[in-house]
Amino acid sequence: MSSTIPNRTTSRMMSGSDAVVEALVNHGVEVVFAYPGGASMPLHQSLTRYRDRIRTILPRHEQGGSFAAQGYARSTGKVGVCMATSGPGATNLVTGIADAKMDSVPLIAITGQVGTPVIGTDAFQETPIVEVCRSITKHHYLVTDPADITRIVREAFHVAQTGRPGPVLIDLPKNVQLAKLEPDFDAPMNLPGYVVPDRSRAQPEQIAQVAGAIRRAKRPVIYAGGGIISGEASNELRELVEKTGIPVTTTLMGLGAFPGDDPLSLDMLGMHGSVYSNYAVDECDLLLALGVRFDDRVTGKVSEFARQAMIVHIDIDPSEINKNKEAHIPIVSDVKYALTELNRQVEPPEASLAPWIAKIDAWKEADPFGYDESFPGILPQHTIHRLWELTRDQETYVAVGVGQHQMWSAQFFKFRQPRTWHSSSGLGTMGFGLPAAMGVKAAHPDALVIDIDGDGSILMNIQELATCVCEHLPVKIVLLNNQHLGMVMQWEDRFHAGNRAHTYLGPIDHPEAIGQGDGLGPEERYPDFVTIAKGFGCGAARVDAKDRLDDALREMIDYPGPFLLDVTVPYQEHVLPMIPSGHTVKDLIKQ
Amino acid sequence: MRHVISALVHNVPGVLSHISGMLASRGYNIDSLAVGETENPDLSRMTFVVRGDDRVIEQVRKQLEKIVTVVRVEDVSAQDFVERDLMLVRVSAPPGGKRSEVRELTDIFRGRIVDVGPEDVVIEIAGQETKIQAFIERIRPYGITDLVRTGRIAMVRSATLGSGADEPAAEAATSE
């Protein structure tokens, strides 16, 4: 770490907040998403002093700032930084912090705090945010001594991005921000409990064991997750597949780790994963679980998951090994290191995989991801499929909200590169898409950045349209508008006899609110997203005719600024296939 | 299965809250938790008694190790170890026969009377959990008015020679 920090010999007095901002600059931070308030004003004053070296983007809600910082972090692999004031500013960051913890995103959240003399007195805008966030951060600090600032910022970057990445909170009382100090930017870290463990490297005998298991396998499958992406091991994974011919299924977090349009890709597995990936995992005799955590949305009933397989589990976090599913060959390791070593000695399985691949291809043939292509209106799946076709030859990043549109995006958009797909996967936070896309755009100004969103999700952070316009972040929004909370509605249809329980997003006196009626036409839908987007200064259009869809998507892509395309889709579609929660592949619903 | 886990932690504000919060939020059952400074003022030692099968204990250990302020975690009960619990108990003991009986019982258990009031006495007693428990049962009929325990602390023995001789006399006298 120390090598990345320029050595500073000239000591000089500066304020605590200047020291914080200068430390951010020293750590290579290019942009912060920061919403000011009483207790964080000194930090913002300092940000203006460093404006030539660090860009400050003002989100319109602190939660938007936290997701934007995540979009920046997820799409670059660098630490994302967000900032808020004390009290409500800080608590508005909580969801974003919890989200970053679940998806292992390196995030630093800096909060203003009331001055140390009044901490604990229920002062105006006082919240014990460190207490609130203990269990949802990787680490956290309440800075009480200005002399600790530089060390703590240094530790925060180290902890956030090493090992299994995660969020770190730094709570800075206002008097600490204002204090004068002589900063030592090389202050040594004091983390006796956080030695980046030497056992995060696979042992040679473990690697040999895995190579042996591959050699003996007849029906192997690779189950790759977000660890491949955060561990920068996508190329090593591709090399392993080239050398062995083993097919790959990825988790929601792992999309892009392996090219979705490769013949050996089985697409996503799990609850809304492909039929063929779930069949393949069910019948495989060797499961190579790489950078994954056997999440319940992947495994269903965990005791039945990959029941016939020898399981190799490689993960950097020791607590993930044997947490949900016992592994036959458990390896605590940086996955890139393990795969690099494995690729040195691995050989293809002794027995030809041709019969296994033929079986999988037959499953693919029988049950591909599909939809009714003859449907006269615009189906959400069709929209995503067309969007992928139209953008496949340019650098494209996609962020999504949570719900049906998220699953369809995972199914129908074929991601080829890591860090191009951004989804709140573990926490499942609605409203993630727009602000995350904003952060991606800040990191990749020349790329096409699309938020595929739902009409429920987008409303949770729609205020960020203002940020897109005012901060010149031309994000494109494909809004799959079905006037319902589609995923919950789907469960109502499947498990509650279609009884609508607050899943209709229009006025309550519409018949659809109680599960009747055929859905409304585009003009009657509520709210009027085109007018809203235009009110914010975005370009916007509505499309409801199938033969107009491609033109509308092209218009959106070519528009110079932020643009919202409101796509009228029917609400009757369900995300399929589906394995009901806690069930097995035997209960897979195809229709 | 009962396990005694010992964690060496960085002595910073909030570490106790962080650890107890993690244990609670993940639903682990803690029988006892003791915490105090070590010979190094930068480090504290926390000792837990946890119940669970091997898988639960493995997770407890790994989740503890994951906390940045936790320096080292040890399953003390997986090795040969010494375990102690300290208790102060106020017992009704009016002068006369009752008081002598209480004194006698205290002696058998190798406790000490550390305070004497007109109607009651305060007894200090240290030892293994089973011994403390046995003493509580024996003394209960006299009338316990106040009781406080430190929670279990434990240490691995340095050598196996002579192990088992934890508390020869009183231990034997009180084991059920």
End-to-end separation of chain B: 19 Å
Counted up, domains of chain B total: 2
Structural class call of chain A reads alpha/beta
Beta-strand content of chain B:
35-45%
Enumerate how many helices of chain B there are, as a single number: 5
Q: Compute the gyration radius of chain A: what is it? A: 25 Å
The strand count of chain A comes to: 20
Task: Identify the overall geometry of chain B.
Answer: elongated
Low-confidence stretches of chain B at least 5 residues in length (pLDDT < 50)? 167-176
Q: Supply the CATH superfamily name of the largest domain in chain B.
A: ACT domain
User: What's the CATH class label of the largest domain in chain B?
Assistant: Alpha Beta
Spell out the helices and strands of chain B N to C: EHEEHEEHEEHEEH
- In terms of DSSP E residues, the strand content of chain A is 15-25%
Unreliable residue stretches of chain A: none
Provide an overview of this structure:
The complex is a heterodimer of chains A (591) and B (176). By secondary structure, chain A is of the alpha/beta class. Chain A has 3 domains: 2-181, Rossmann fold (3-Layer(aba) Sandwich); 198-366, TPP-binding domain (Rossmann fold, 3-Layer(aba) Sandwich); 380-568, Rossmann fold. Chain A is built from 23 helices and 20 strands. In chain A, α16 (380-391) packs across α23. The mean pLDDT of chain A is 95. Chain B has 176 residues and is α+β, with helices and mostly antiparallel strands. Chain B folds into 2 domains: 2-78, ACT domain (Alpha-Beta Plaits, 2-Layer Sandwich), CATH 3.30.70.260; 82-157, 2-Layer Sandwich (Alpha-Beta Plaits), CATH 3.30.70. Chain B has 5 helices and 9 strands, in the order βαββαββαββαββα. Chain B has helices spanning 15-25, 54-66, 97-108, 129-139, 168-174; strands at 2-10, 29-37, 43-51, 70-75, 81-92, 112-116, 120-127, 144-149, 153-156. In chain B, strands 5, 6, 7, 8 and 9 form a 5-stranded antiparallel sheet that branches. A 4-stranded antiparallel sheet of chain B has the order 2-3-1-4, with helices on one face. In chain B, β6 and β7 (120-127) form a beta hairpin. Mean pLDDT of chain B is 89; it is low at 167-176. The chains are: A alpha/beta (591), B alpha+beta (176). Chain A binds chain B through residues 130-131, 134-135, 138-140, 142, 159, 191-194, 317-319, 321-323, and chain B through 9-10, 13-14, 17-18, 21-22, 25, 42-43, 55, 58-59, 62-63, 65-72.
